[in-house]
Amino acid sequence: MKYRIRTYYTDSQKALMWERWKAGDSLQQIAQLFDRSHSSVEGILSRTGGIPPPKRCRSCLALTLCEREEISRAVVAGFSIRAIASILGRAPSTVSREIKRNGGREGYRAAQADQAAWDRGHRPKRCKLSRNRALARIVAAKLQSLWAPEQIAGWLRHSYAGDEDFQVSHETIYRSLFIQARGALKKELLQHLRRTRVMRRSRHHTQKTDNHGRILDTVSISERPATVEDRAVPGHWEGDLLFGGTSSQIATLVERQTRYVMLVKLGGTDTETVVNALIKNARKLPQELYKSLTWDRGKEMAAHKRFTLATDIQVYFCDPHNPWQRGTNENTNGLLRQYFPKGIDLSSHSQAKLNAVARQLNERPRKTLDFHTPAEMFSQIVASTG
Predict the structure, then answer these.
(1) Are residues 279 and 329 in the same domain?
(2) Positive or negative, the Cα torsion across 355, 361, 364, 370?
(3) pLDDT tens string 190-229
(4) Into how many domains does the chain fold?
């Protein structure tokens, strides 16, 4: 019978793992550095939920190994506690406690005492959410409402301004979710995050690539006015299709300045169906609030000239293979995956259901809006144009 040899990693190897994980490498890529399987690397990284553990260091007030060796020699020589403390420049109580907790005068060994002190230092400090259960309940409720940790932290700063007891960083929320040893937030809350993975990934891990088809007679995004680019003027939108299972899809539209979202039910992806639905949706808003639309180069917008003719809304197209040029919409589609996971049949959702999801998303605070909501910002624009 063949036994599998257990894998051990040195501290320097673990440090390299965390460095590559932070840089965005996959488990397989990291494992190849050590000629090991990805599961052995995952075992190391998953212990802290994919979050690098803090570098350990000793307090400047703690006894050093040299001091412990001095204590050991003094104990063998028969020095009193006060005499040893005088030699070290320490309080007698410090020396007395050190000797008692490490075997007494007969069993004291410097190296063993130093290692024991280092091991005791593993005791974790309780995080803020485990100490303040009222705050933890607020955070849990917002997570269940599909708020992101950064949105929760920003909202708390506004809602509890001046009250430090109810301030918490988004990093603390993430750590409490992914490092269950903290005992602050239940693991089940992970399913409410935008990305429902068991380990936190680096922001550099993946980037979406564009594989949409090409269309002709497009107006390039480079011709889009500067006022659109700097978001100085409202009424400029970005759009794309969000795909589900069984060839279902919806159109997603987001206003660049306010991040206000509209969702449009579609009966198909052919350009006739998509453009007709977008024309109908555009007529719900006054011209002041819908001046341009930036789209990817998907063939569903092949009839973009008819859209512009019917609505007087200019359509601009991203450069080939550059979907990041409409990054606001890309980010919004990522948020929508919390409501519409990949593979779900989108055709079963009515327009009323889509409107309800858009409303819920528009009522979530955004960091880029100083943690105001898109609904608040869009309402201000509507009021000013009215």
Answers:
(1) yes
(2) negative
(3) 787 876 666 766 666 554 434 334 577 889 999 999 889 9
(4) 4
Which residues, other chains included, contact 330 with Cβ-Cβ below 8 Å and sequence gap of 6+? 208, 240, 323, 324
Among 230, 236, 226, smallest CA distance to 259 is for 236
**Residue 162 shares a structural domain with residue 38:** no
List pLDDT tens digits, range 40-98. Answer: 888 888 777 777 877 777 778 889 999 999 999 999 999 999 999 999 999 999 999 99
Contact yes or no for 371/157 (Cβ under 8 A): yes
User: Counting every residue, how long is the chain?
Assistant: 386
Given 192, 210, 232, the domain boundary residue is 192
Q: Are strands 292-295 and 236-243 parallel, antiparallel or unpaired?
A: parallel
In a domain? residue 317: yes
Q: What is the rounded CA–CA span in Å between residue 162 and residue 276?
A: 51
109 and 150 inside one domain = no
Q: What is the mean pLDDT of residues 11-26?
A: 84
Query: What are the CB-based long-range contacts (under 8 Å, 24+) for 31-39?
Result: 34/9, 36/7
Owning domain of residue 81: 65-120
> pLDDT at position 365, please?
95
Coil/strand/helix, residue 343: coil
